[in-house]
Amino acid sequence: AHLDRIAAVDERLNAFITVTADTALATAADVDRRRAAGEELPPLAGVPVTHKDLISTSGIPTTAGSRMLADFVPPYDATVYRKTQAAHMPLLGKTNLDEFAMGSTTEHSAFGRTLNPWDPARVPGGSSGGAAASVAAYEAPLSVGTDTGGSVRQPAAFTGTVGVKPTYGSVSRYGVIAMTSSMDQVGPVARTVADAAALHGVLAGHDRFDSTSLPEAVPDFTAAARAGAAAGLAGKRLGVIKQLQGEGWEPGVLAAFRAALDAAEAQGAEIVEVDLPALSYALDAYYLIMPSEVSSNLARYDGMRYGLRAEPESGTVTAETVMAATRAAGFGAEVKRRIILGTYALSAGYYDAYYGSAQKVRTLVQRDFARAFEAADALVSPTAPTTAYEFGAESADDPMALYLGDIATIPANLAGIPGMSLPAGLADGLPVGFQLLAPAREDARLYEVGAGLE
Ligand code: GLN
User: Dihedral angle at the C-alpha atoms of 137, 21, 36, 78, nearest 10 degrees?
Assistant: First the structure.
């Protein structure tokens, strides 16, 4: 049924870069066979899933949304893909994204833009726009995305789905094409909090192939969601972040957010306001640390080892001219912009002023969160200041406007804490996201509170 739905709508929607019908049907048939033989299978066996095309799948193209990797077929699996396979979840395909996960609209993909199922004149958000659109359009029940500065939560907000960024280190990054290694996290996109909990449980867990992987056992997210749905929000303290509202925030977004808070209060939640002054500098810190790591991580695309190789149009063919020609042809404008910014921020003479200062801000953000969580069980804000942008409106011409739209999501990545976006009604007919943040390693709390809010 999902493959039929993809065939019916995806030519227009373009949520997928690759559809893997044969792989999906083979897994589904295998599940049927095992069930018929009386085998006990894990809970999501037979439930289809998609992976963002940043996640390596052996034998299946993995492009990162870039010309650089347009013909790349990885020789190995990312741990998170291995896990959905071990859970017997049929892979429907690989979803569209902004090139190397850099962007908030999925317009920066070498494979065309993805439409928002709610309004084809608008973006689905990004960079996991294909993942969110595929779930919102009923092409897939579950999707795996990545979130470095909001790339799961913001598209979830723009498409009326649930998206989660786990605690840094709690889901393996092995085989996930690197953007900003100190912030990248894989997370689930789903239509309900309980669905997200089930997929999150499959993805999480220690991985010896990821040096930043946490050793803790995986909590039972599904049990947390059930407990939250049963108990409601009575006695839960929700901390409204003072810095994430007010000027520059769409009135319709704030109204929907307020209405959700009122509903929580009516259920017995206690609403408090929390002050996180360092958030005023969080965006600036992110847009220095992120490009710095990008410039370093993307140095590997040199035209020599794998991926695109372009020869210089004229002059001598040397390692350097091949590298220059390859990177000029293979990367899009936004990726180039970030490589240049990052190279500058890391250069001798500027390192302390930019990268060093940004790392200090990162510590201040972490301290602000630690203090705020003394006053609240979960922190809340709208996921983004606006609803889904119209195509072309803010995007290509004005990168700054888009960077500002990440204000609510990037603090969690700087601090490594988990966050969830869940639907909070509509503003002018478009979905609004409600963001929940919890302390590091307390991802289960997101499901407990989220299910209570839902
Ligand atoms: N929009 C943010 C950026 O462009 C987030 C990207 C991400 O989370 N991968 O950097």
Answer: -90
